[in-house]
Design a protein that fits this description.
Chain B: Heterodimer of an alpha and a beta chain. Chain B: Its EC number is 1.2.4.1. Chain B: Its cofactor is thiamine diphosphate. The complex is a heterodimer of chains A (about 325) and B (about 375). Chain A contains twelve helices and 14 strands. With about 325 residues, chain A is an alpha/beta fold. In chain B, strand 6 and strand 7 form a beta hairpin. Chain B is about 45% helix and about 10% strand. In chain B, helix 5 crosses helix 13. Classes of the chains: A alpha/beta (about 325), B alpha/beta (about 375).
């Protein structure tokens, strides 16, 4: 059986199923209990599983991640929620110094399986520091995995995989997509593998790599380009940003000979740079045009009156793809 | 301002009246008792002494090894033996222990091998492996971060209804960090079975406690979180032992966390890379604290109770020397590391790019051109 769910409902269902499936799973975070999360991702779970499993914590991000580490080394599988990605900054010490390193330092004695869930990205006209996309911080930190779903089906399957993963996973949920659309989502537990990208549109002229909410925008542009100019795009949703799916990236570029990376994070030292490097290392001689990055500008994510212009727009993406194809 | 000050004064008076952070003494500097110690079995007292003597010899040896260039930078703990040994002896094997980098006397009591401690300071990750069946976490290098880990582990123990507590070892400097506050706050809110064990050794590297904190004691911080605060003479093994025993029992009976401040002193440098004469009158403070030496007073007491003799001492000194030498030999005899170890245990399963980097390392190390 499957139903039409939006992304936040799919997240809720994944959490519900894992709480039911495994007594080691506990959720903790600010406002996740009675309030059901500010985006309602944990709605109804406190009533169902009680406050030992769904824990409203004091407002303290370092403590949410720090105590999750202790829980994990003592046999639980915590799923901490950080209310917005930029609020994780006070917890970066815990994340970088301990979450990412505990398995390594203890030589496998104390792994810390946990999934850190957080809404991220721009596009909902939130206040300051509610729209960042600093996924490259995490992708630059050995020991972490970084996962970004772009739709309800993947969100549920990836979150279940993340919770079951023996390593810590930073699970970034594109805020803009929480309620943007619905998709058929099967009932029950199913897994979408971490580390595997997905081709969401088949094409021959250019490879377009994107994730999160940018995937949707890139897809729209790809559809328009085919309709209007006959250009076909191989659109790849990376889904996992660390470790990247090398084979999916390289095979697509070998086929199309052109590539464009679209992300809303700042351009400099963003994930796009990593993907371009990977293409250079593995598929340079297949290229017929320089690989282009269409990214958020290298400015602090602006207040929301300017937000839509900060994010790669359809026009910018379209121009980038056209320039690459007609180079 | 005045009202706030009055309120703080009043709270202080109340706390004092409640005995919340009066420094507790049991074993005085001259080896006599300040109160009954019937709850501490004689064999525990003797074992404490043996551990403390060993720890000091080990510590001094480690400094010497560093000076000879045979191990790397080392963080000495001389002066803190009672705080570490007696607290560790009050724990049970199932407890979760979160040490900092200066807490080797405590971890060795709990089963960490002295050779491993030397290995750790020789830059070998193998040195922080927890002994089989124990839960000794790798020593935390960032300050106060691990205090939160102890809270989380205590949370998990309670969730599974297991009779184990968690203890975090940290210094006075850690109490200035936000994570210390967050840890006490969480533990207080959720009444978790955790012990916060602060060794107030007077200095966070060069900054004295008076500059570290406007509060006069660390124990008094407990009031703010509505948890039990205890201040003990950290050079008094009996007082430390009892404080931790009681905290452990309180935790297991669902009565929540305890903040223990063990007032002690770091006799030497922060690490072998530090020069304490830059920030304190080293000679004067060491002389003053030598009068409070935790080992001397315990020996005096044991002798007065006929639990220890000159002959016992001679035998122990011999044994300690042998054990320290054996640890050094074991640590220094270990084969050089397989350099490829750096790629191990980053993830449960090696991702493709790490496998590629490992392969690249292997090829270039062997000098095979590609």
């Amino acid at each position: 059986m499957s139903r039409m769910l939006n992304l936040v409902q799919a997240i809720n269902e994944a959490l519900d199923l894992k709480l039911a499936d495994d007594a080691r799973v506990v959720l903790l975070g600010e406002d996740i209990g009675k309030n059901g999360g500010v985006f309602r991702a944990t709605d109804g779970l406190l009533e169902k599983y009680g406050e030992e499993r769904v824990i409203d914590t004091p407002l303290a991000e370092s403590a949410i991640i720090g105590t999750s580490i202790g829980m994990a080394v003592n046999g639980l599988i915590p799923v901490p929620e950080i209310q917005f990605l930029a609020f994780i900054f006070p917890a970066l010490d815990q994340l970088f110094s301990h979450v990412a390193r505990m398995r390594y330092r203890s030589q496998g004695q104390f792994p810390v399986p946990m999934t850190i869930r957080t809404p991220y990205g721009a596009g909902i006209h939130g206040p300051e520091l509610h729209a960042e996309s600093v996924e490259s911080f995490f992708a630059h930190t050995p020991g972490l995995k970084v996962v970004v779903p772009s739709g309800p089906y993947d969100a549920k399957g990836l979150l279940i995989s993340a919770i079951e993963d023996p390593d810590p996973v930073v699970f970034l949920e594109p805020t803009k997509l929480y309620r943007a659309f619905r998709e058929e989502v099967p009932e029950g537990l199913y897994r979408v593998p971490i580390g595997k990208a997905k081709r969401v549109r088949e094409g021959e002229d250019v490879s377009v790599f994107a994730w999160g909410s940018m995937l949707r925008t890139a897809l729209k542009v790809a559809e328009a380009l085919e309709r209007e100019r006959g250009f076909t795009c191989d659109v790849i949703d990376l889904r996992t940003l660390y470790p990247l799916d090398r084979d999916a990236i390289v095979e697509s570029v070998q086929k199309t000979g052109r590539a464009v990376v679209v992300h809303e994070a700042h351009k400099t030292a963003g994930l796009g740079a990593e993907i371009v490097s990977l293409i250079n290392e593995e598929a340079l001689l297949y290229l017929r045009a320089p690989v282009k990055r269409i990214a958020g500008f290298d400015v602090p994510v602006p207040f929301f009156a300017l937000e839509d212009e900060y994010m790669p727009t359809e026009a910018r993406i379209r121009a980038g793809i056209e320039e690459t194809i007609t180079f | 301002m005045l009202a706030e000050h009055d309120r703080a004064e009043r709270l202080t008076e109340i706390a004092k009246a409640e005995g919340l952070y009066e420094e507790i003494h049991l074993l005085k500097e001259d080896g006599t008792l300040a109160g009954p110690v019937d709850d501490i079995p004689p064999e525990v007292m003797v074992a404490m002494y043996r551990h403390m003597v060993f720890s000091r010899a080990f510590d001094r040896k480690a400094i010497a090894l560093q000076r000879q260039g045979r191990i790397g930078t080392y963080a000495p703990f001389e002066g803190q033996e009672a705080a570490q040994v007696a607290s560790a002896m009050a724990l049970a094997p199932e407890d979760f222990v979160f040490p900092s980098y200066r807490d080797h006397a405590a971890t060795m009591v709990l089963g960490q091998s002295p050779a491993n401690v030397l290995l750790y300071w020789s830059g070998r990750v193998e040195g922080i492996r927890s002994p089989e069946g124990r839960h000794i976490l790798p020593p935390s290098v960032p300050i106060a971060t691990h205090v939160l880990h102890a809270v989380g582990a205590a949370w998990a123990s309670r969730y599974r209804k297991e009779s184990a507590v968690s203890i975090a070892y940290f210094g006075d400097g850690a109490t200035s960090e936000g994570d210390f506050h967050e840890a006490l706050n969480f533990a207080g809110v959720f009444h978790l079975p955790v012990i916060f064990f602060c060794q107030n050794n007077g200095y966070a590297i060069s900054v004295p406690f008076a500059r570290q904190s406007a509060s006069r004691t660390i124990a008094q911080r407990a009031i703010a979180y509505d948890i039990v605060g205890v201040r003990v003479d950290g050079n008094d093994a009996f007082a430390v032992y009892r404080a931790v025993k009681e905290a452990r029992s309180r935790a297991l009976h669902g009565l929540g966390p305890t903040l223990i401040e063990a007032v002690t002193f770091r006799m030497g440098a922060h690490t072998t890379a530090d020069d304490p004469t830059r920030y304190r009158d080293q000679k004067a403070v060491v002389e003053a604290w030598q009068k409070r030496d935790p080992i001397v007073r315990l020996r005096l007491y044991l002798e007065s109770q006929k639990l220890w003799s000159e002959a016992d001492e001679a035998k122990l000194q011999d044994e300690v020397k042998r054990r320290v030498e054996a640890a050094v030999e074991e640590a220094l005899a270990i084969a050089p590391p397989d350099m490829e170890m750096m790629f191990d245990h980053v993830y449960a399963e090696e991702p493709w790019h790490l496998a590629a980097e490992r392969e690249e390392y292997r090829r270039t190390r062997e000098g095979v051109s590609v």
